[in-house]
């Protein structure tokens, strides 16, 4: 099983029958950069034509496109074409830049890509729990386990990822479309900062609302209190780490923002009916790639 800190790039060069319409996966990778020598210039690349989607997991990098400059921090992505008038690099004052990326040949998929990019922009923010990010991490995981072994599987991976990206671009928050703006801001902040200890006071101060008004408004719009929403985000991330890494329960608890493994076990069992160990081992139970949780009673207090 792949480690949560593992890095590397997997390239794919399959020969498919010319009469079949298959999407072409060029590469998928994960890296952590700590030196300013990291730099790519889209006008100097020789491996195009390619479409690049690169998503920041931690830290930050820089992206220049034409006359625009973006700081690509946690939760932000780069969407660009190779070759092209762009540059992305590690800033001289940066500490680290951890990201996952996918490179795709544009044949067949270019119109979908262009539609998604038109709606999202070339440096979009996507929550780490969003479907496109989960799909990308799943492709990385499948590649690391040697499961993308033919052009049909590779094509399916590409089409699934692009479809999720297009769906997100059309309705990025689905049910969030009717939420009040500050409720969306609160949810997005928790999506991006679930590893931190986030209190109701912290959220209310950030949004300029009283904590009681935030609690009532968030619960009415979302059907959950902020604490319940944050727990759901954390448990979904814990499920991903249990499936894709060898990290201990204590390590996963730290990664997702809980004070210790015992508390993670308590919340995990309450929400899923399983212990983290039981979920990971899959012994005597179905294998879940995702679990949907029943709605909570919105009267519960905001506390961890």
UniProtKB/TrEMBL annotation:
SMART domains: HTH_ARAC. Keywords: Activator, DNA-binding, Transcription, Transcription regulation. SUPFAM superfamilies: Homeodomain-like (SSF46689), Regulatory protein AraC (SSF51215). It comes from the Bacteria. Gene3D superfamilies: Homeodomain-like. The keyword Transcription applies. Residues 184-282 form the HTH araC/xylS-type domain. PANTHER family: HTH-TYPE TRANSCRIPTIONAL ACTIVATOR RHAS-RELATED. This is HTH araC/xylS-type domain-containing protein.
């Amino acid at each position: 099983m792949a480690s949560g800190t593992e890095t590397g790039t997997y390239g794919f060069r399959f020969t498919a029958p010319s009469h079949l319409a298959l999407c072409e996966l060029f590469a998928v990778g994960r890296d952590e950069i700590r030196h300013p020598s990291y730099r790519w210039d889209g006008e100097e690349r020789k491996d195009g034509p390619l479409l690049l989607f690169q998503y920041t997991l931690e830290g930050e990098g820089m992206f220049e496109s034409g006359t625009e400059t973006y700081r690509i921090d946690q939760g932000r992505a780069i969407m660009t074409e190779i070759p092209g008038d762009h540059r992305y690099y590690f800033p001289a004052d940066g500490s680290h830049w951890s990201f996952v990326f996918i490179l795709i040949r544009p044949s067949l998929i270019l119109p979908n890509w262009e539609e998604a990019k038109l709606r999202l922009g070339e440096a979009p923010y996507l929550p780490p729990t969003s479907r496109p990010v989960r799909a990308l991490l799943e492709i990385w995981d499948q590649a690391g386990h040697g499961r993308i072994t033919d052009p049909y599987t590779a094509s399916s991976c590409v089409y699934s990822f692009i479809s999720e990206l297009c769906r997100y671009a059309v309705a990025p928050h689905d049910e969030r479309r009717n939420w009040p703006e500050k409720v969306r801001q609160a949810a997005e902040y928790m999506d991006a900062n679930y590893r931190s200890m986030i209190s109701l006071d912290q959220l209310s101060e950030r949004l300029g609302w009283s904590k009681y008004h935030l609690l009532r408004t968030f619960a009415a719009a979302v059907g959950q209190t902020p604490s319940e929403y944050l727990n759901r985000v954390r448990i979904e991330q814990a499920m991903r780490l249990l499936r894709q890494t060898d990290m201990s329960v204590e390590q996963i608890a730290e990664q997702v923002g809980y004070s210790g493994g015992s508390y993670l076990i308590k919340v995990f069992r309450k929400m899923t009916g399983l212990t983290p160990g039981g979920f990971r081992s899959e012994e005597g139970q179905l294998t879940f790639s995702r679990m949907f949780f029943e709605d909570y009673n919105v009267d519960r207090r905001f506390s961890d």
